[in-house]
Amino acid sequence: xxxxxxxxxxxxxxxxxxxxxxxxxxxxxxxxxxxxxxxxxxxxxxxxxxxxxxxxxxxxxxxxxxxxxxxxxxxxxxxxxxxxxxxxxxxxxxxxxxxxxxxxxxxxxxxxxxxxxxxxxxxxxxxxxxxxxxxxxxxxxxxxxxxxxxxxxxxxxxxxxxxxxxxxxxxxxxxxxxxxxxxxxxxxxxxxxxxxxxxxxxxxxxxxxxxxxxxxxxxxxxxxxxxxxxxxxxxxxxxxxxxxxxxxxxxxxxxxxxxxxxxxxxxxxxxxxxxxxxxxxxxxxxxxxxxxxxxxxxxxxxxxxxxxxxxxxxxxxxxxxxxxxxxxxxxxxxxxxxxxxxxxxxxxxxxxxxxxxxxxxxxxxxxxxxxxxxxxxxxxxxxxxxxxxxxxxxxxxxxxxxxxxxxxxxxxxx
Length: 414
Description:
This protein is an all-beta fold. The chain has 2 helices and 29 strands. Strand 14 and strand 15 form a beta hairpin. The radius of gyration is 21 Å and the shape is globular.
């Protein structure tokens, strides 16, 4: 018999049995109770950010879904509706997110407009930060390269809903094929000479060099460490399994399928004391960490010291995003088991936090001041970027939340 990708064959033999006998089976549910917070019936969501007053924001990456045109950042204004944030205008670059006058087409280079936002995060001062990749996908699904002015970090004052800071990434930090993915903040004055704090960012590029990017929030300077080291890259030959399906990547229309290990450093989390950074590649089951001191160092031998300081924390399941609570627990998706796991740095163990058949591709996490961990579930593996190359997503996408164990809450490094 000739088999192709996607075939599932089972041979069942029926034998005599006693009806009173019970066969053990997977219950499908365990751990924390999940609460549905929001249903996304329109655009395809990635991130979630929750302010101290309960305001909620999501982003919609134009590089992952070319239909995310109307806006790339929104505030959730009811259980089922969103509104472009902070305005419809800033979400709409003149002429669109892609510049078709270049060969090949490229991301728009507007520093004052959102091009393709991949992450939204509330910092310890209750400000919203927006991480823009500067990239977007064509209607055919091709992710165009960025141009200077597109990749940036934008700070929003939630009191008056206005931009208070824009930091542009130079092409030596955000390469044209970089994909600035997620971000975490440490605002302690002691961590930078400017005294304004630092941000840590993952570069998960499927085409280029993966790594960790740092930004001094006072000076706007940015730099990279761990460029393309094995720990920030996906695993060769990696195949995850979601809802009974083997997941293979389909990089672009007309190309052959590849292993799904081409997504590098993605999820990122700071320890509760700010002294350790954790990350994971989507194309990996391993959690890594490094002392943040090594990432802040820009001396002559800083890269050598950084590479020598990386620690493998072992396997934690396949995860997209990561997050930390005030107890130091690291939340991670366990996509292959419809679950969310918790890694405890104090004893090095991984435990299941919640398990539910509704959990497929758990994307981004945010622990809020209200003691809940919020997370989006968006069926990413069913997009055209994965075999068989057709859109198999079923709306609505979902924002869930669950109580953090042990009265955990948001980490605020000030």
